[in-house]
Structure formats: C-alpha cells, structure tokens
Design goal:
Blueprint lengths: L1 E2 L2 E2 L5 E2 L8 H9 L4 E3 L3 E2 H7 L4 H6 L9 E6 L3 H11 L6 E6 L4 H4 L11 H14 L4 E8 L7 H10 L4 E8 L10 H10 L4 E4 L5 H11 L3 E4 L9 H10 L8 H19 L1 H16 L5 H8 L5 H18 L1
Parallel strand pairs: 3-4, 3-11, 4-6, 5-6, 6-7, 7-8, 8-9, 9-10, 10-11
Antiparallel strand pairs: 1-2
Helix pairs in contact: 1-11, 2-4, 4-6, 6-7, 7-8, 9-10, 11-12, 11-14
C-alpha cells in the first residue's frame, strides 16, 4: 500500500492513542511486525505557542532507533495553526502528517476539536487543505463514523478530505457518542471506500489476524490499523502480518509476555527517567499480564511498589512462576 510517495509493507498499522503510543511502545510494535505507526496526538496550537518549550510536546516528538514508517499526528481546528505546525515539524523524522478528527475525549471535543469537527465537514476540508499546502509530507486524516447516530457522515467527510489533498483516510467505525463502546459498524468503512480513490484504512474491533482479514474482505479497505488490541499485545502485528501472508503464527508464552513487559519498562525508563517510567508502565504491565494466573493479585501488589528495582524483581518472579505453571 502507498500513502503518497511512501510504500508500506504488508501488515497493520498502530493507531495513535494518547498516553499510550509513545516511542517505546511504537518500537516494540515495529519489532513485532507493525507496518507503520502514528504518534500520540500533538496540539498544533499548543506547539506554535510553546515553540518546543513544553516538555510533554517535546517527548511526543521523540523517536527511537529502529522505528519504522511513522506518522506525526496533529490536532486543531484553526487551519493557520495546523499548517504552521505541519511545516515546522516536517523534518522531525516522521514520514507523514496525520490529522486527528476522531478523538472523542471531552477536553478535546469541548474545544471544538477532534471528533467534534465531524459536525463541521467544511472546516475539516479547510484544515486538511491548509496542511497539504504547508508541508512536503503526505497528509492523512483520521475520522470517525460521525458525531452520533443522527450524524453519520464519514463518507462525505472522506470525500472532502480527498478533495483537499489528503493522501489517505483512516476510519474508526464508531461515532463519537459511542466512544469505544458497542460494536464498530464496518459498513461505514465500506461506504467510505466506495466514495474515494485514496487509500482507506479501517479501524475498530480488529483483535486478531482473522479479524483483519475479515475487515479487508468485508469492506474492501486498503489497510487496517489497530489500537486498543495492541495494549500489552504488540504481537498482534506479527499475527496480522502472518495472516496476510498465509504463514503460521505462535502466540507468546506467559514468560515471553512478562519479558516484554520488562523490556518495555526499560525503554520507558530510558525515555522518561525511572520514576516517570514506572508511572507510565503501570497500565502497560497490567495489560501485559491480563489473563495470566494470579494477575489480579499481582496488579494489586504492583500498585504498592514505588521503587523501579522492586518492580523489576516482582516482574521477574511473576514471570518465573508463570513459566513454571505453564
């Protein structure tokens, strides 16, 4: 699949998730077979005002050696700010700019940004057009099915994105009102695919290689992106890639899951420092061990630990116990 002048390998992409898909997680997903990944979203207006002085903004732009094709996600409703941010950040090592019109978080939609813009298709077109004119990188757009059940307009919005010069559009097949609940309506992805000629990426309820194949067959989408199913499970990208290539795949053992959690912890510590890395890793560790014997008790004990070395020791012991009982 091509996005503009970028040729992407077979497989699925990692969807952007605020507070989750930092450089550490992206690297692990690339190592397990992710075809591309998109960063956590960065406020275009916030970047322009801070000019890189905001520590969180700078950390969002971090990339690690070994990362593959990456997109930088920006959000904002003012075309001039989005355009300026895209131009200023196009040389940060990312291969494309992704514009967020899908985030359902109240603090984002309350400002008329993210998925709130699904109620303003013409404004989306203006933002996409401004970004396309401002940067030499391909520009993509992430949208939702619509705002709510009375405003399901993804096909129309996708057409406007294409007209504005977008190189691809990703569709989360839920409305903003649904947040992440209920079933994703893949029919919306199929309708978008029928309306545009640029690549369409499907998102929503892909939890396995079989799901990815079924989504592509049912919708005709050009590619698949995975979000929550990758939390604590970077191996899903290897599973999807194997399914697409018709190859066998073996899920990780309990010990391998704990080993990956330890490696993730070391990467987070290198990025943010050990204390901050520990805080960032609490949710990731819970995801890695979910479903393993004794996981509930382990998560409770983990929350009482404040020293990084103690977390390493407890993780190692838990991994050994899991392997022994496997």
């Amino acid at each position: 699949m091509r996005i503009g002048n970028i040729e992407l390998p077979a497989g699925a992409g990692l969807a952007p998730m605020a507070g989750v898909t930092d450089a550490a997680m992206r690297l692990l997903c690339f190592e397990q077979g992710a075809a591309w990944a998109v960063s956590e979203m960065l406020s275009a207006k916030g970047w322009i005002y801070s000019r890189g002085k905001n520590r969180n903004a700078v950390e969002l732009l971090a990339r690690l050696p070994g990362e593959g094709a990456g997109g930088l996600q920006l959000f904002g409703r003012e075309p001039e700010y989005v355009a300026r941010a895209a131009a200023e950040l196009e040389d940060r090592g990312f291969l494309f700019i992704d514009l967020n019109f899908g985030c359902p978080a109240p603090k984002i939609t309350g400002n008329g940004e993210g998925s709130a813009m699904m109620r303003e298709p013409e404004q989306i077109e203006r933002v996409v057009s401004a970004a396309v004119r401002a940067t030499k990188l391909p520009v993509t757009a992430k949208i939702r099915a619509g705002w709510d059940e009375t405003c399901i307009n993804a096909p129309e919005v996708a057409e406007l994105c294409e007209r504005a010069g977008a190189s691809a559009v990703a569709v989360h097949a839920r409305t903003r009102a649904q947040q992440y609940a209920g079933r994703a309506d893949w029919r919306i992805i199929r309708e978008v695919k029928a309306r545009v000629s640029i690549p369409v990426l499907g998102n929503g309820d892909v939890r396995s290689g079989a799901d990815a194949l079924r989504m592509m067959e049912e919708t005709g989408c050009d590619g698949v992106i995975v979000g929550r199913a990758a939390q604590g499970n970077p191996w899903i990208f290897g599973e999807i890639r194997a399914a697409m290539l018709g190859r066998p795949w073996r899920p990780p053992s309990p010990g391998e899951r704990v080993e990956m959690a330890l490696r993730h912890f070391e990467l987070e510590s290198a990025l943010h420092g050990e204390k901050r890395g520990l805080l960032e890793m609490r949710k990731h560790i819970a995801w890695y061990v979910s479903g393993l014997p004794g996981a509930s008790h382990f998560r409770q004990s983990l929350n009482d630990l404040t020293e990084p070395d103690a977390v390493r020791d407890v993780l190692c012991a838990f991994g050994q116990a899991c392997e022994k009982n496997a």
